[in-house]
Amino acid sequence: METNGNKTSWGYRELAEKMWFKEKNGKELEISHVGNDETLKKNFYLTLSLDKWLNDKRWEKVRSPLQFQEIELEYHKSDNIIEIVSKHIDILTVDKRAMYILAIELAKDLGGRISDTDLDNWESVEIFENKHKEILCLTFDEASNLSLREVSLIEVQEEPWD
What is the dihedral of CA 27, 106, 144, 25, to 10 degrees? Predict the structure, then answer.
């Protein structure tokens, strides 16, 4: 996504709450993170991960590396773009939804466009939202329920970068 040389006004916790939820069943969102508000605002350095098993007991029974999804921002200063990176080839719906929301919120905040295929094709936030509306229209709970089914159906692939 383009930064247009702008800095974000978001804090890491605010972004995480947009991506997943703020509070559920009286419990605050449990996440893991590398980086903080300062690193996010200074150089777009941040990694977020939903601690699924701490937010939903059903994930305690899951034994798959797919349940551990880190969503990472990589800032390419020379090109003035932020790349949103996943360490997995196959991404569960709950994490894909979170990545899309992250891209949208940052693009809106920075006045940038989004490229989700290559750096030659850039789209407005509206076009990106429309293209991914099937996933974006899901609630967190709907996406999580789908992911609980997906995790048993997706065959874990050897990641090329491992």
Answer: 20
